[in-house]
């Protein structure tokens, strides 16, 4: 058998991998566009009911570009961000234990949609030092199979990659689970010892736009956050 030329090998990779990644990317664009419509529906439903509870509670939807959505609900902001790259999983990942991926390794290539939680006041007062937290990331492959890595029910209700295909109801469930987690994820008082020293520049900034760093779990890594509600 004649040895393949460099050109032949390049074309083989383009056919087998680059074209596949394009398919994954465009499937994820379709999913994200559908997610925008579902988010609008969820916001419309919640906004109407929230006004009956308390007129001060805000529920708003805003698109910040093709790949980013902002959902504001009460004192929280959720950002839904679609990554424009396609990822493959390390061979140690549990998905490689499934016959679904072992039988066709190309199924391991996925697009990714991240969900981040921030405090609404961080943006209202331009507190650029405030921190947010990733609460979930959704992976979707070229066949629209999906799984979710996340906190609480987000991490175990949607983890059957071989069987679960993303659809409108699944997306709505994920969105509602993310909202519930954000609303239950309370703001903790920073440790007193960490707040004893304040520079002149910081206190001047406080009077200007309240920039002392704030976060729901200030001083703790996201990974260490408990999945239990106290």
If you had to describe this structure to a student in words, what would you say it looks like?
It is a single chain. The protein has 230 residues and is α+β, with helices and mostly antiparallel strands. The chain has one domain (11-186). Helices cover 39% and strands 19% of the residues. The chain has a six-stranded antiparallel beta sheet with strand order 1-2-3-4-5-6. A hairpin with a 2-residue loop joins strand 2 and strand 3. Helix 1 crosses helix 5 (168-184). The longest helix has 48 residues, at 6-53. The protein is globular. It starts with 5 loop residues before the first helix and ends in a 21-residue tail after the last helix.
Structural class: alpha+beta
Which geometry do the CA atoms define? globular
Q: Could you give the distance between the termini? A: 67 Å
Number of strands: 6
Domain count, please report it: 1
Strand content: 15-25%
The largest sheet is: 6 strands, antiparallel
- Computed Rg: 21 Å
Q: Give me the strand/helix succession.
A: HEEEHEHEEHHH
Give the strand order of the largest sheet, numbering strands 1, 2, ... along the chain.
1-2-3-4-5-6
In terms of per-residue confidence, which ranges show pLDDT below 50 for 5 or more consecutive residues? 218-230
- What's the average pLDDT? 84
Tally of contiguous helical segments: 6
Helical content, roughly? 25-40%
List keywords for this structure.
alpha+beta, 6 helices, 6 strands, 230 residues
